[in-house]
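Saturday, quiet lab. Running sequence design on the structure tokens for the scaffold JK sent over.
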């Protein structure tokens, strides 16, 4: 019952020369790590500091620290028996190369069989609020043929000093873990684990405490939480002692699952409800947590991501839909970006569908991921090539006005070009990206106001 997790891998090798060095990276790029072995299926394997100046990532069976504009990285702590440590072994060269060619894809499986089932898995790599270290959780199997699993919640300082905060052990519904999250409270007295429901773990007593909420989302600005009360099914604001500080005039049916997106300033929230099976569709509404005003519910996909980008509740709705009732069945498979204004009006930035399958010798993903800047000023997305060119896609940047610019260099040498964006950093001034086994950063280029996105729809 510890949520859902699927794992993918990007790669590093300490035992051999760099596997897939970038053949084409921008001339103004700064190489951060020339030999990365990264788990591309694990969304928790990369984290940017809150000031945007440093990155932490998992590679070659360790957590590494690096500036966003200068390398090389510094190793903080080893993570043996994890995906990237196994891939770094010489006998997994083929899997390592395959992973290095792959974009970020939670469905990607670099390892199979007993080595995949027996490996440790890392959750929730993230920075402390003071930026003096990182939290992370390592899942370790207690033994063979048992559903019992131990989750070691850890802290590592920027000097590499490691501290085990607690160990949470129990039967948590393996293997459905990919949506699990581990949040350590400011005073380190509790760990809030969110999965299918919510677990509040008392660190001092080493046991769970009574949890009246089936959803808790921590604030990025304080020690508070936004949650759903179990008994009333009401949206509530929860303080650091897990007591209800405020109730909102929003309730949800018992049979519907709810997930929440909370704005950084704590003024707005998006409440998405859906049935147990995501293919049955979902609806989402936005609420002003200060005034209680709600915008009408809209249909959405359970995999859609929401990102607040303005003080007035403006947000982005990002979609990568492969299947389900809002996917192929309705002709909406592909990628999409929508801007939703404070008054509820929405406008499409782009919709892409026409990804032709790779030709022989090409390697790629049907729907490459989108990467959005925290302020919404830029989105990196893959635009399908015209019919007169080779199958595949060229990554572009698009701004909120719908103007686009291709990421240089423009080429059709591979299925997806020119490289895989990972995240924006330094107040959206730099783009962290990967080409083969090379991790680098590049200044974010200006968007050409004369070019508009081609909407495949």
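Result came back. Writing it out in full:
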């Amino acid at each position: 019952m510890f949520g859902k997790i699927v794992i993918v891998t990007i790669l590093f090798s300490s035992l051999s020369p760099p596997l897939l060095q970038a053949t084409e990276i921008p001339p103004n790029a700064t190489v951060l790590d020339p030999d990365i072995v990264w788990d591309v299926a694990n969304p928790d394997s990369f984290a940017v500091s809150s000031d945007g100046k440093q990155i932490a990532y998992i590679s070659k069976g360790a957590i590494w620290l690096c500036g966003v504009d200068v390398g090389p990285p510094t190793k903080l702590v080893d993570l043996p028996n994890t995906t990237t440590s196994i891939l770094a072994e010489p006998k997994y060269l083929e899997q390592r190369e395959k992973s290095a060619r792959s974009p970020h894809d939670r469905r990607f499986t670099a390892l199979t069989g007993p080595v995949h089932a027996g490996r440790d898995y890392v959750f929730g790599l993230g920075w402390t609020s003071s930026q003096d270290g990182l939290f992370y959780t390592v899942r370790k199997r207690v033994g063979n043929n048992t559903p019992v699993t131990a989750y070691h919640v850890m802290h590592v300082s920027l000097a590499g000093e490691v501290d085990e905060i607690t160990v949470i052990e129990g039967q948590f519904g393996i293997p459905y873990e990919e949506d699990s999250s581990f949040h350590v409270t400011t005073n380190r007295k509790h760990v809030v684990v969110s999965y299918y429901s919510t677990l509040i773990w008392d660190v001092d007593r080493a046991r769970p405490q009574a949890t009246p909420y089936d959803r808790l989302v921590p604030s990025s600005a304080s020690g508070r939480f936004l949650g759903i009360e179990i008994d009333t099914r009401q949206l509530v604001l929860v303080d650091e002692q897990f007591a209800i500080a405020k109730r909102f005039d929003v309730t949800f049916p018992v049979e519907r699952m709810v997930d929440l997106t909370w704005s950084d300033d704590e003024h707005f929230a998006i409440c998405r409800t859906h049935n147990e099976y995501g293919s049955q569709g979902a609806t989402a509404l936005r609420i002003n947590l200060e005034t209680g005003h709600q915008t009408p519910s809209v249909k959405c996909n359970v995999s859609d991501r929401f990102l607040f980008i303005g003080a007035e509740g403006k947000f982005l709705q990002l979609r990568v839909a492969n299947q389900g009732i809002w996917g192929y069945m309705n002709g909406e498979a592909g990628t999409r970006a929508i801007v939703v204004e404070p008054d509820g009006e929405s406008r499409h930035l782009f919709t892409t569908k026409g990804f032709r399958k790779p030709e022989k010798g090409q390697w790629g993903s049907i729907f490459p991921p989108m990467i959005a800047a925290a302020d919404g000023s830029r989105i990196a997305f893959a635009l399908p090539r015209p019919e007169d060119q080779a199958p595949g896609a060229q990554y572009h940047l698009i701004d909120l006005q719908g103007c686009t610019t291709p990421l240089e260099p423009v080429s059709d040498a591979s299925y997806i070009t020119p490289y895989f964006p990972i995240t924006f950093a330094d107040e959206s001034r730099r783009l962290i990206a990967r080409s083969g086994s090379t991790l680098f950063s590049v200044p974010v280029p200006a968007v050409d106001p004369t070019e508009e996105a081609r909407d495949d729809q």
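Notes for JK: The radius of gyration is 22 Å. Confidence is low (pLDDT under 50) at residues 1-22, 323-331. Ask whether to fix the surface positions before the next round.
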